[in-house]
Design brief:
This protein folds into two domains: about 1-135 and about 190-250, no CATH class; about 140-165 and about 255-380, Cytochrome Bc1 Complex, Chain D, domain 2. The strands form six sheets. It has a two-stranded antiparallel sheet with strand order 1-3. Strands 2-6 form a two-stranded antiparallel sheet. A two-stranded antiparallel sheet has the order 4-5. Helix 5 (about 190-200) crosses helix 7 and helix 8 (about 260-270) crosses helix 12 (about 370-380). The chain has helices at about 1-15, 40-45, 140-145, 150-160, 190-200, 220-225, 240-250, 260-270, 325-330, 345-350, 355-365, 370-380; strands spanning about 35, 70-75, 90, 100-105, 110-115, 130-135, 170, 175-180, 280-285, 285-290, 295-300, 315-320. It is α+β, with helices and mostly antiparallel strands and about 375 residues long. It binds heme C (2 copies).
Amino acid sequence: MAARDGLDAAIGKAIFGRMWVPAPASTRHADGLGPLFAARSCASCHSAEAGRTRFRLGRDDPGQDPGLVVRLGSSSGAPDPIYGAELQPEGLGKAPGEGRAAVSFAASGKPSWRIEGPGYGALAPATAMSARVAPSLAGLSLLERVPEAAILARAETEARDGVSGRPHWIEGPKGKSLGRFGWKASEPTLAAQAASAFTLDLGLSTERRPEVAGDCTPFQTACRDAPQGAPPGEPEVASDLFASLVAFLEHRPAPPPPALSRRGVTLFAATGCAACHAPSLPLGGGAGVAAFTDLLLHDMGPGLDDGVGEQAAASAEWRTAPLWGLSRTLAQGSGLLHDGRAATVADAVRWHDGEAAAARSRFDALTPAERKTLVDYVSGL
Ligand code: HEC
Ligand code: HEC
């Protein structure tokens, strides 16, 4: 079984790196890209070793970075009627790309987004833009294995200090399931996340998401009419290749454990960071995973509210970002928070409001020496 798993993961790695090409092509099983898409491969956005994309808002041009994706929608989560649920800057054949994301900043530093060179006219008045950086893929199978009951139990006991995390229930054909992945915990499993990446980011159909035209809406006729990469009724990404890709995701090792800092651990708890960034979640059988997330949604206040709801998550609600691997994210110069706007841990905390307001106040009230100990600890995770 293990050998078979390893083989699957090796094939999956190749699928992860594969540059998909437009249909029709002579390379069967590698075509079907787009016609609207954000990148040609998973690896274009998620680096080979799968750290977070290097994008930092305010330093890098968002219109040039494939690792930054822009979701489109209303505050209740309805996609744009013309552009769909995601901005795809690239188009093939007669289907023009949708345009590039551009940003300006309010005096508070809060970003405000627009489309430069919109391919299909103006966005609907109710549509807002939500920029997201591509996260690290390290250790995700552990987060998939945390028993649902353990996450729900945390939601029950968290209510303290105005902290009130809630599970993101995702409605599906087989009833509701608990969302875990993505900045808003909108995908319950790695397979579901991969299928939606194929649909939204690459314009490729899978058995799970059979829509052949990806995120093209009925108004995007050139996209709808373009050739497809598979005969009707068959997915563009063959099911065995898809299964191998998921095996690859499941084999991404967790980030290495941090150096021990007793003072750091104590301050992290006393300041209230641990209320959401849970230092450990149970895996069953006495084991635990130190990802520093509770996998729950929290209302983070107006500074992080970008106006785009997603499924049952409100526009100000975000999944507690796992802090494991943060040292590497910082070392490679990637921005923190969902849109990469924060350069340091202290910058990230400055944007914590809503349910995290009490923790932020306590952080501000630390002595400079304590604050440095806490920031060094978190920066070293
Ligand atoms: C155009 C850039 C882009 C491409 C291409 C892309 N991703 Fe992503 N990926 C993202 C972004 C951005 C997110 C965060 C999405 C969100 O939260 O809304 C993400 C999230 C994820 C996550 C969840 C990570 C977590 O911490 O919860 C997984 C797993 C993932 N992608 C796998 C894939 C796979 C597999 C492919 C190829 C089929 C792929 N991605 C293609 C940008 C991309
Ligand atoms: C109420 C819950 C809550 C509390 C309390 C909280 N956080 Fe967070 N934290 C979040 C959420 C949710 C995000 C993701 C927000 C986003 O990306 O928009 C986040 C993101 C972060 C990030 C950025 C991580 C990344 O991957 O980009 C850092 C760093 C961070 N928190 C540190 C802290 C520290 C330090 C404290 C204590 C002073 C703290 N947090 C308290 C919920 C919380």
